């Protein structure tokens, strides 16, 4: 795990190494300063003249400046290295997520992936910064200070033999107790973010049903749960300070009492050595305190590291094969004894015994109740999922033999809840074809019956679309998404209930445009309205994941009870409304 994460340092190895070098220099200088200071105090006590005092003072000033410079450069390099490491880590995570199949995304959930790219990366960045700076400085200062304490104070330094184990064990116990609470917090962050995303996306529904108070209470409960865990952890971590203060004051009292006795009665110790011992004592205790902080931060970030590594080590369930086919011959589609379920643990198939053959250029309608398998059927064509059993072919070739990019470039899908991205209408349309001219954009919008309303905007095709397309209506959004798909000029066009928000006249005009603009493209239209599919070359009636009936509109009226019932309900309802 560490090897994989540290691989994200890459071009920021140099500032990382420079940080370590300057930290070592700073630590050495800081442990030498009390030694020089003690010598200065002793010389003053012995009656040294002003020139000698100034000479040692200049040396101390130079050392202090050198320590400051080393610390400043180390801080600059550390900030650059840790920020660069986090940037690379997010980049690698984003690349990995971008290669995931729907199955992989379903495994983690979108909110969890967002948390891993934000909160978890931030924790790991903080941890990395602490490791290359404080985690090097603290043990070096501890070791150097203890060594210099024995050099300067002799037996007086034995105080550290008592203090270090007491403080070390105490801080270790604090971190060990806090670990379970910190670990549970990150799992709860996923649920909190999920609640936020759900509420923001469904804000209109929440307000429409006046459920603001309920959602506030639900969010408050999740936030309170996290607060409780953090409070428990921080309550434990708060013991760091009193433990350290106890050891610090114990050391000061011990050094002052025993040191004063050695100076006054025995004469084995000078005033300078006593002051150095107090300084080294503070350095030792501060080093241990920093180590305890590092332990807590590493404890918190360990769980984040694991969560990030899970994503980085996850392999997409869909891959392009070696020597992949790079040309889609035509838009013919074949389902050969296909069974499909979204998870191996699922008890029943979403699709069962699908055997279907569609010629290139055909218009195929798909109709059926909610949960009948309509969307599952079309998602196997661009290989968003793989069939569990059987074979799906496009252009006479098994979809698993195609290069994924080539296959998906040949298939355009327009969903009922398709997405527009923040940017201008032109920028959104050019997702279908980056090189499309303004004339081609206008032509596609005219075919999708979108040109009129786009032209009515003050900025026309340069109108800015808010995130998620919130500043256009549902029908306008669907028509823009259809135009975007038409610009792709695909071999297969799939409309998954994507005209549900437009009126029947506009729906009919859009379908007429398809015949004129893309006659050789295979068109699959999933719809709830019979009127949207009745002129199709072939209509599939789906029920419980199976193709219950197939045929033209007239054939199904004569042979399919399900289709006839849907047709009569819709036409009867229409007459009654008239």
CA radius of gyration is: 35 Å
Low-confidence stretches: 574-578
Shape: elongated
The largest β sheet comes out as: 6 strands, mixed
Euclidean distance between termini CA atoms: 68 Å
Strand content: 5-15%
The secondary-structure class comes to alpha/beta
- The main sheet orders its strands as 6-9-10-3-11-12
The chain-level mean pLDDT equals 82
Helix content: 55-70%
Total number of beta strands: 12
Number of helices: 20
Explain how this protein is built.
- By secondary structure, the chain is of the alpha/beta class.
- It is built from 20 helices and twelve strands.
- The strands form three sheets. It has a six-stranded mixed β-sheet.
- Helix 5 (110-132) runs parallel beside helix 6 (134-153), helix 5 runs antiparallel to helix 11 and helix 15 crosses helix 17.
- The radius of gyration is 35 Å and the shape is elongated.
- It starts with a helix and ends with a helix.
- Mean pLDDT is 82; it is low at 574-578.
What is the topology?
Layout: H1 2-6, H2 13-45, H3 50-98, H4 102-108, H5 110-132, H6 134-153, H7 159-201, H8 203-208, H9 212-237, H10 240-266, H11 271-313, E1 333-340, E2 351-358, E3 363-368, H12 374-379, E4 389-394, E5 397-398, H13 404-409, E6 411-415, E7 423-424, H14 425-429, H15 438-447, H16 451-456, E8 464-465, H17 474-487, E9 492-496, H18 504-517, E10 522-526, E11 538-543, E12 546-551, H19 553-559, H20 561-577
Parallel strand pairs: 3-10, 3-11, 6-9, 9-10
Antiparallel strand pairs: 1-2, 1-4, 4-5, 7-8, 11-12
């Amino acid at each position: 795990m560490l090897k994989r994460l540290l691989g994200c340092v890459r071009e920021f190895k140099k500032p990382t190494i420079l940080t370590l070098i300057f930290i070592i220099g700073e630590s050495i200088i800081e442990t030498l300063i009390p030694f020089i200071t003690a010598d200065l105090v002793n010389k003053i006590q012995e009656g040294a003249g002003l020139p000698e005092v100034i000479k040692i003072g200049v040396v101390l000033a130079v050392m202090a400046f050198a320590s400051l410079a080393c610390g400043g450069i180390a801080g600059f390099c550390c900030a650059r290295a840790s920020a660069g490491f986090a940037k690379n880590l997010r980049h690698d995570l984003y690349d990995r997520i971008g290669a995931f199949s729907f199955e992989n995304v379903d495994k983690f959930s979108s909110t969890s992936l967002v948390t891993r790219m934000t909160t978890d990366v931030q924790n790991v960045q903080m941890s990395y910064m602490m490791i290359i700076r404080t985690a090097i400085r603290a043990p070096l200062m501890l070791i150097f200070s203890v060594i210099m304490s024995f050099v300067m104070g002799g037996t007086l330094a034995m105080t550290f033999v008592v203090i270090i184990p007491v403080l070390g064990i105490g801080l270790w116990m604090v971190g060990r107790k806090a670990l379970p609470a910190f670990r549970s917090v990150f799992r709860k962050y996923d649920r909190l973010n999920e609640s936020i995303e759900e509420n923001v996306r469904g804000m209109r529904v929440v307000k429409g049903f006046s459920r603001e108070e309920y959602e506030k209470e639900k969010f408050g409960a999740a936030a309170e749960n996290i607060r409780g865990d953090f409070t428990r952890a921080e309550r434990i971590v708060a013991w760091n300070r009193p433990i350290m203060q106890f050891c610090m004051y114990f050391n000061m009292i011990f050094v002052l009492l025993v040191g004063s006795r050695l100076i006054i009665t025995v004469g084995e110790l000078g005033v300078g050595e006593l002051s150095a011992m107090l300084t080294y004592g503070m350095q030792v205790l501060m080093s241990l305190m920093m180590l305890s902080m590092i332990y807590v931060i590493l404890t918190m970030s360990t769980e984040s590291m694991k969560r990030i590594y899970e994503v980085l080590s996850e392999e997409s369930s869909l891959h392009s094969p070696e020597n992949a086919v790079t040309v889609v011959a035509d838009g013919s589609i074949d389902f050969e004894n296909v069974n499909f379920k979204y998870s191996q643990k699922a008890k029943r198939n979403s699709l069962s015994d699908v055997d279907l053959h569609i010629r290139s250029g055909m218009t195929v309608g798909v109709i059926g109740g909610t949960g009948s398998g309509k969307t599952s059927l079309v998602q196997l064509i661009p290989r968003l999922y793989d069939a569990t059993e059987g074979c799906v072919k496009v252009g006479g070739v098994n979809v698993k033999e195609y290069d994924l990019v080539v296959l998906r470039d040949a298939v355009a899908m327009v969903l009922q809840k398709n997405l527009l991205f923040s940017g201008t209408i032109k920028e959104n349309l050019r997702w279908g074809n980056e090189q499309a001219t303004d004339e081609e954009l206008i032509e596609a919008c005219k075919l999708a019956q979108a040109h009129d309303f786009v032209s009515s905007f003050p900025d026309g095709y340069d109108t800015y679309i808010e995130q998620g397309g919130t500043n256009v209506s549902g029908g306008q959004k669907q028509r823009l998404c259809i135009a975007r798909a038409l610009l792709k000029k695909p071999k297969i066009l799939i409309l998954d209930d994507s005209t549900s928000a437009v009126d029947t006249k506009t729906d009919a005009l859009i379908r007429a445009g398809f015949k004129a603009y893309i006659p050789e493209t295979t068109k699959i239209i999933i719809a709830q309205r019979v009127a949207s599919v009745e002129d199709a070359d072939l209509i599939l009636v789906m029920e419980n994941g199976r193709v219950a009936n197939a045929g033209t509109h007239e054939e199904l009226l004569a042979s399919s009870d399900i289709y006839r019932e849907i047709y009569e309900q819709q036409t009867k309802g229409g007459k009654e409304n008239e």
